[in-house]
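Shipment paperwork, digital attachment
Item: protein structure file
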Amino acid sequence: MYSPWESFVLTFVPLFIVLDALGIVPFLASMSEGMSRREQMRTINISVLTAAIVGLIFLFFGRAVLNVVDISVEAFAIAGGIILLVLSVKYMTTGHWVDAVKEEMIAVVPLGTPLLAGPATITTLLLLYTEFPIYMILISYLVNMLICWIIFLAGNRIMKFLGQGGLKAISKVFSLLLAAIAVSMVIKGLTMLGVIE
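Attachment content:
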């Protein structure tokens, strides 16, 4: 059994990686170009709030959906791991988690979802739910949302400090870590099914 601190770290780190706030900073900067500071703040606030709401909906009701469609935890662990692996490989090869489409309300789509709370985030939340107490996942997710908000607020400074290349390099490392987590999820699912020891 994990200690509270270990549980926090083990739920916080995967979520921090899949949310990839640093990787979204250049996209946020380009999408909010020409906006006033007040408009930028509103865009940031709405995008983070949207991501938080989407994530919480899947955290609290995602398991019920699994039960309704009769999907086992083991099967979801394997499927989720494969999806995360595909997404991480996609990011390493194309530089995008998803194919984002510009919408009138960019704070909700694509910033809030699918860039922040997209397939990788949702899958990770549901998989963490199978192993950790929901209150710990909730704390980790809300702390991550706060960090995302702070990173977005400091977006211009971060871009000046790291540069476009630095941000891309960090995101690539995160995607590699995500691939490792994905493989671990598949192995865990196979172990739970007794396919491997």
